[in-house]
């Protein structure tokens, strides 16, 4: 009897020790998991930021030319087209003029791109989880429409978080060496706008931006991923090798996605830029070189801006600057997507936007 009691005690002691060891292991894993999750988040944000900075710097001259064409007064034309405009800037302002506002642009686009890509991944995970629960199919994948929704969500979050920087960047990009009032930099511009026009001015044009970002960013992600999935699964042109696409093919997917997205959303981008100039007392002189009427820059809201633009300049004014923007968007979006995936590969992050 005594011997059996001892055996039972030994067995109970061993079980207790094993159980404690298992609990300790689980506890250790539980501590490490948040750290690994935090590191993965940082890598994702870093990859998105690098993608945004590289892609925008590559097309900075075209970005400035687009904005100048969008906001110049129709009664005092200084820039007659992309090539002429770039030559004019080179002649009057030099190389620095072509990249004017790029520092501010990168200061805005780096966090914007980081938040956008990260938000898309999280939104995709959430939408896919709800979709699988609704359909009861644990193997279901995102449809193009669901990807559009995830992309739109990511675009709204990223744009709203960095909109004041976009507003200031637009003004820094538009001003020239002959501007009657010079913003000396990002901080000076932010402080000046806040002091002279109030905090609401930093979000002027936000509504058309929200409306425009839905088709723009949504289509970018939806078209890019859908094209990649189609090329990998069906491999119609023999471009996929071992379920992977080459850099040139991925760049082409990004170019198609960017072209479709910006064409749909471009009129709203024009209205947003014009509304951002409202309240800037020297805006008329900046965009017209001293001529023209400031009245064309006075809008009471998005609808009023649309109505006045079409009435005074015609429907084509909603697509002013589309040519340099198209030339800019094709490489910019393509470079952003591919750079993002390549940086994440280098950093060893397994989850990518198409997974």
TrEMBL record:
Membrane topology term: Multi-pass membrane protein
InterPro entries xrefs: MCP, MCP_dom_sf, MCP_transmembrane
GO biological-process terms attached to the record: transmembrane transport
GO CC annotation: mitochondrial inner membrane
Compartments, as annotated in UniProt: Mitochondrion inner membrane
Keywords: Membrane, Mitochondrion, Mitochondrion inner membrane, Repeat, Transmembrane, Transmembrane helix, Transport
Residue ranges crossing the lipid bilayer per the database entry: none
Start-end of each Solcar repeat: 39-126, 142-230, 245-346
Pfam families listed in its UniProt record: Mito_carr
PANTHER family cross-referenced by the UniProt entry: SOLUTE CARRIER FAMILY 25 (PTHR24089)
UniProt record similarity statement: Belongs to the mitochondrial carrier (TC 2.A.29) family.
Record's protein name: Mitochondrial carrier protein
Provenance organism: Arabis alpina
Upper taxonomic lineage: Eukaryota, Viridiplantae, Streptophyta, Embryophyta, Tracheophyta
């Amino acid at each position: 009897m005594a011997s059996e009691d001892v055996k039972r005690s030994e067995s109970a002691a061993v079980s207790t020790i094993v159980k404690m060891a298992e609990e300790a292991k689980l506890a250790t894993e539980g501590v490490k998991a948040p750290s690994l999750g935090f590191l993965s988040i940082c890598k994702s944000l870093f990859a998105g930021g690098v993608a945004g900075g590289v892609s925008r710097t590559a097309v900075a001259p075209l970005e400035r030319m687009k904005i100048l064409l969008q906001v110049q007064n129709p009664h005092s034309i200084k820039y007659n087209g992309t090539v002429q405009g770039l030559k004019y800037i080179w002649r009057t302002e030099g190389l620095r003029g072509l990249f004017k506002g790029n520092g501010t642009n990168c200061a805005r686009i780096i966090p914007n791109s980081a938040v956008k890509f990260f938000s898309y991944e999280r939104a995709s995970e959430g939408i896919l989880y709800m979709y699988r629960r609704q359909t009861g199919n644990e193997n279901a994948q995102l449809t193009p429409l669901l990807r559009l929704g995830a992309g739109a969500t990511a675009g709204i979050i990223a744009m709203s978080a960095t909109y004041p920087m976009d507003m200031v960047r637009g003004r820094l990009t538009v001003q020239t060496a002959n501007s009657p009032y010079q913003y000396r930099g990002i901080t000076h511009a932010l402080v000046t706008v806040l002091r002279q026009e109030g905090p609401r001015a930093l979000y002027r044009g936000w509504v058309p931006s929200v409306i425009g970002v839905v088709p723009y960013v949504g289509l970018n992600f939806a078209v890019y991923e859908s094209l990649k999935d189609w090329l990998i699964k069906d491999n119609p042109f023999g471009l996929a090798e071992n379920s992977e696409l080459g850099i040139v093919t991925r760049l082409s997917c990004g170019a198609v996605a960017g072209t479709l997205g910006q064409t749909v959303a471009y009129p709203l981008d024009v209205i947003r830029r014009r509304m951002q100039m409202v309240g800037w007392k020297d805006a008329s002189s900046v965009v017209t070189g001293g001529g023209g009427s400031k009245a064309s820059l006075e809008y009471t809201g998005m609808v009023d801006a649309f109505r006045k633009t079409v009435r005074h300049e015609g429907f084509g004014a909603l697509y002013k600057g589309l040519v340099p923007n198209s030339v800019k968007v094709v490489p910019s979006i393509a470079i952003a997507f591919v750079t993002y995936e390549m940086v994440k590969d280098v950093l060893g992050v397994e989850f990518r936007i198409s997974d």
